[in-house]
Amino acid sequence: MEILNEFIHQIKVPTANDNIFSEECVFSFDTPESDDGLYVSLTSFLGFSKDHVERYYQKTKNAVFLHIKRVKTEIPQNESEEGPEKKITRLAIGLEGGLQDNSSKKYKYEDTYHIVVFPSQTKIAFPNENLPSIVNESANAIITSDSAFKKLEKEQCTGTWDGEMRQVSVHALDLQQLENGKKIPPTGWKCEKCDLTNNLWLNLTDGSILCGRKFFDGSGGNDHAVQHYQETKYPLAVKLGTITADGKADVYSYAEDDMVIDPYITQHLLHFGINIGQMQKTEKSMVEMELEYNQTFGEWAELQESSANLQPISGPGLTGMSNLGNSCYLNSVMQVVFTVPDFIERYVSKAIEIFNSATSDPVNDFNVQMAKLGLGLWSGKYSSIGEDSLDTGANGIKPTMFKNLIGKNHPDFSTKQQQDAQEFLLHLFTVIERNSHGQSNPTDAFKFQIEDRVQCMSSKKVKYSHRDEFLLPLPIPLESASNLDEVRKYEEEKLLAESEGRKLPDDALVRPKLTLKSCLEKYAEPENVEQFYSTAINDKTTASKRARMATFPDYLVLHLKKFTLREDWTSMKLDVSVDCPDELDISFMRGTGLLPNEEELPELKNRPPSPQMDPDVLRNLQDMGFPLDACKRAVFFTKNTGLENATNWIMQHIADEDLNSPFVPPGQESIKTVFIPNEEGLAMILSMGFTMQQATKALKATNNNTERAVDYIFSHQDELDMEDVPSSSTPAVATKNYRDGEGKYRLKAFISHMGVSSQVGHYVCHILKDDQWIIFNDNKVQISQRPPKDLGYLYLYERIKN
């Protein structure tokens, strides 16, 4: 054991605060199950594959490792315990608590350990009583402690359903319960306002039993419980049939508009004579109902091509990704962006270069984790179509480290809840931009400029401005559907069926059929802007505004705005068919710039007085949960005519891209003379110790985006105190490196969403590789037979090069 003596001072015993990476290499997706096992440093507790451990030693001189080799063997079917059917507790397939494939094989695992000393790579079997005590303590702690992955999993899942925090209701402690003598029987419940006997909710204030909400497909209840809350404001209700003897139940807070925890549920139920110890679950929980509904939703089978016998395929660029608790949005986005040559060049071709320049903390080095992910997808090393790999779901990689890093401190992407793929794509680009200072930025392949043209209708003078975008958000003009008559007939038949208590068969579904061109034309349509302040007449008037593309990027992402709100403000998704062609010509959307016959609006010299806004209406709108700038827009554009009009305006414009951006009255946006920083962002940056000038400059450079402004500060510190030098010859389009070319594109990939809301359901993507379409459904990679190009959510078009 003398070989260890010179390294004893390096060895540490991990504490509860240390993260131990004993499940996966920090530079690759090798695990203890890999052929060469995993090496865990007894100094840093980082894990390394055989391909990377030598470089780590050379860089740090940390020489002692615990080598873990795991052997997996199949358990014969007659030996595996079937056990009782497990309860479904989350909206997922193949994950713990979700819907499981009962045909999957069962396995057992056996680990063997060695202490390995570099550079000689001397191996010493472990456990070994002759080892120095600190070596034994360190190795034993690594083996017995939760890995970093398990610790994070526990943190995310504590008090959650599917990663979504269920908060303790603020109404639970002081809940009012009426002394009305009402006692609830253990069975035989019925809605007090209709004949429904399922989906019933017990109001915990007055004991009323009423039916729940009507679902998107017409099933569910008749909204009587909701109406009761609107009349009484009694906040909490429990779903009858979900109460169990261990104190679990579905509790909904109408006041908080969310599922909540009631820690006093036992005494609240006892008030109405319900002994929780005698209760049994007799009805599906909200989790189970949501899962079941998503699976039977019309497009679920179509998007996964469930009816086809799809052939698996493997190889470089054909590697699946495991679903880490509703991470399918991340999986689909990353599969698509890593088809773009710029991403492959930046993170795959230069992966070893990135690894060699890694910081001392590769787990939190974004470029390292991007290179690890890219190399994992494109090396082919983790791609397999063997029977064993498909049965166990082992095919592909688990992007655990990347997911944890990209979502770190983010209110949405740090959870295990399903998220919107479009929002994640923009978040990904923001983080890449933050980490590309001085390096090539692969998102430049997507970046383009939008040209906004505003014309004062009184003077006919115009104003042109430009803004950066990474995707084109397209409205869904339902009025342009080619089969409106069939859609109306289907809706009438559906309503009739609902009134008669029946449901139409799935094959009766009629979707509105539109063309992608109609969506593009709707985007390009001029819109009227009321109360526009014209510098030509120094007064308010009406203006016409339109958007065009000033540049055409190498890769164009189209976002079909399918998610919207119902009249009751609950989220819904438009189930439409949009014909997206294999080849697309958007030349008609090219901006013109100032034309010879056009005259520019004068610059704004003196800003007019701020418009008067009713403070009571603003406060009431904010109490409804709308952001302040959205409320200001609503009051302004409805000319201070009251709460109802302002509320209706917000509902009509809820999908507007700029709804929540800092509000500046139309015609007063001239940034040549005036820039108004976001008040909340300014306060936050100032609280970090930066000056007013630095904070304002960062917000100005990032169009008042607070998150990007913070990134800008840290990546442009040398420029923060430099004075901005105005130029009279500033071009209409900023002098940035925008790629541009002809507006002819070919469809390269598309991401589809199945489900009724962006917060639930499932994402898959289809990618064109070597002239055949491949479907990526998490860890399953298969040759597509009928790619559902008309049901996508995000589309990636590649410019056709002559």
UniProtKB/TrEMBL annotation:
<dbReference type="GO" id="GO:0016579">
    <property type="term" value="P:protein deubiquitination"/>
</dbReference>
<feature type="domain" description="USP">
    <location>
        <begin position="319"/>
        <end position="800"/>
    </location>
</feature>
<comment type="similarity">
    <text>Belongs to the peptidase C19 family.</text>
</comment>
<dbReference type="GO" id="GO:0006508">
    <property type="term" value="P:proteolysis"/>
</dbReference>
<dbReference type="InterPro" id="IPR041432">
    <property type="entry name" value="UBP13_Znf-UBP_var"/>
</dbReference>
<feature type="binding site">
    <location>
        <position position="224"/>
    </location>
    <ligand>
        <name>Zn(2+)</name>
    </ligand>
</feature>
<feature type="domain" description="UBP-type">
    <location>
        <begin position="167"/>
        <end position="276"/>
    </location>
</feature>
<keyword id="KW-0378">Hydrolase</keyword>
<dbReference type="InterPro" id="IPR015940">
    <property type="entry name" value="UBA"/>
</dbReference>
<feature type="binding site">
    <location>
        <position position="211"/>
    </location>
    <ligand>
        <name>Zn(2+)</name>
    </ligand>
</feature>
<feature type="binding site">
    <location>
        <position position="252"/>
    </location>
    <ligand>
        <name>substrate</name>
    </ligand>
</feature>
<dbReference type="InterPro" id="IPR009060">
    <property type="entry name" value="UBA-like_sf"/>
</dbReference>
<feature type="binding site">
    <location>
        <position position="201"/>
    </location>
    <ligand>
        <name>substrate</name>
    </ligand>
</feature>
<feature type="active site" description="Proton acceptor">
    <location>
        <position position="762"/>
    </location>
</feature>
<dbReference type="InterPro" id="IPR001607">
    <property type="entry name" value="Znf_UBP"/>
</dbReference>
<protein>
    <recommendedName>
        <fullName>Ubiquitin carboxyl-terminal hydrolase</fullName>
        <ecNumber>3.4.19.12</ecNumber>
    </recommendedName>
</protein>
<dbReference type="InterPro" id="IPR038765">
    <property type="entry name" value="Papain-like_cys_pep_sf"/>
</dbReference>
<dbReference type="InterPro" id="IPR028889">
    <property type="entry name" value="USP"/>
</dbReference>
<keyword id="KW-0677">Repeat</keyword>
<feature type="binding site">
    <location>
        <position position="194"/>
    </location>
    <ligand>
        <name>Zn(2+)</name>
    </ligand>
</feature>
<dbReference type="GO" id="GO:0004843">
    <property type="term" value="F:cysteine-type deubiquitinase activity"/>
</dbReference>
<feature type="active site" description="Nucleophile">
    <location>
        <position position="328"/>
    </location>
</feature>
<keyword id="KW-0788">Thiol protease</keyword>
<dbReference type="InterPro" id="IPR016652">
    <property type="entry name" value="Ubiquitinyl_hydrolase"/>
</dbReference>
<feature type="domain" description="UBA">
    <location>
        <begin position="612"/>
        <end position="653"/>
    </location>
</feature>
<dbReference type="Pfam" id="PF17807">
    <property type="entry name" value="zf-UBP_var"/>
</dbReference>
<dbReference type="InterPro" id="IPR018200">
    <property type="entry name" value="USP_CS"/>
</dbReference>
<dbReference type="Pfam" id="PF00443">
    <property type="entry name" value="UCH"/>
</dbReference>
<feature type="binding site">
    <location>
        <position position="191"/>
    </location>
    <ligand>
        <name>Zn(2+)</name>
    </ligand>
</feature>
<keyword id="KW-0862">Zinc</keyword>
<keyword id="KW-0645">Protease</keyword>
<keyword id="KW-0833">Ubl conjugation pathway</keyword>
<feature type="binding site">
    <location>
        <position position="257"/>
    </location>
    <ligand>
        <name>substrate</name>
    </ligand>
</feature>
<feature type="domain" description="UBA">
    <location>
        <begin position="676"/>
        <end position="716"/>
    </location>
</feature>
<feature type="binding site">
    <location>
        <begin position="213"/>
        <end position="216"/>
    </location>
    <ligand>
        <name>substrate</name>
    </ligand>
</feature>
<dbReference type="Pfam" id="PF00627">
    <property type="entry name" value="UBA"/>
</dbReference>
<dbReference type="Pfam" id="PF02148">
    <property type="entry name" value="zf-UBP"/>
</dbReference>
<dbReference type="GO" id="GO:0008270">
    <property type="term" value="F:zinc ion binding"/>
</dbReference>
<dbReference type="InterPro" id="IPR013083">
    <property type="entry name" value="Znf_RING/FYVE/PHD"/>
</dbReference>
<keyword id="KW-0863">Zinc-finger</keyword>
<dbReference type="InterPro" id="IPR001394">
    <property type="entry name" value="Peptidase_C19_UCH"/>
</dbReference>
<dbReference type="InterPro" id="IPR050185">
    <property type="entry name" value="Ub_carboxyl-term_hydrolase"/>
</dbReference>
